[in-house]
Amino acid sequence: MKDDKSIKSEMIRCGKRTYFFDVNLASNKDRYLKITETRLLEENEPRRRSNVMIFPEDIDRFKSVFNQISKLLKT
């Protein structure tokens, strides 16, 4: 998606991991959330990167499951 445009971006650093939350605008004008995790595996190695994209039609289900699971982590 080369024509994507960033609307909003937030970053969280957690030790050797960094998370990026980016709301982008695709070439068809739809917004989507891209979550990127970068992590350092070895000191002299490049960071490993993983992406997850969440589209508007899925965000409510994603939020619901995320909230349920996060409650389990807190107990």
Describe this structure in words.
The chain is an alpha+beta fold and 75 residues long. Helix content is 21%, strand content 47%. The protein contains 1 helix and 4 strands; from the N terminus they run ββββα. The protein has a 4-stranded antiparallel beta sheet with strand order 1-2-3-4, with no helix packed on it. The longest helix is centred in the last third of the chain and has 16 residues, at 59-74. It is flat and about 40 Å long. The N and C termini lie far apart (40 Å).
Based on the model shown, name its key terms.
flat; 21% helix; alpha+beta; 47% strand; 4-stranded antiparallel beta sheet; 1 helix; 75 residues
**SSE string, helices as H and strands as E:** EEEEH
As a whole number of angstroms, the C-alpha radius of gyration is 15 Å
Total count of strands = 4
Low-confidence stretches are none
Question: Can you tell me the overall shape?
Answer: flat
Overall pLDDT level: 90
The number of helices is 1
Instruction: Name the strands of the widest sheet in spatial order.
Output: 1-2-3-4
The portion of residues assigned to helices is 10-25%
Largest sheet: 4 strands, antiparallel
The CA-CA distance between the termini, in Å, is 40 Å
Helix-strand category: alpha+beta
Strand portion: over 45%
Lay out the secondary structure.
Layout: E1 5-14, E2 17-25, E3 31-39, E4 48-54, H1 59-74
Antiparallel strand pairs: 1-2, 2-3, 3-4
Task: Compose a concise summary of this entry.
This protein has 75 residues and is an alpha+beta fold. The chain contains one helix and four strands; from the N terminus they run ββββα. It has one helix at residues 59-74; strands spanning 5-14, 17-25, 31-39, 48-54.
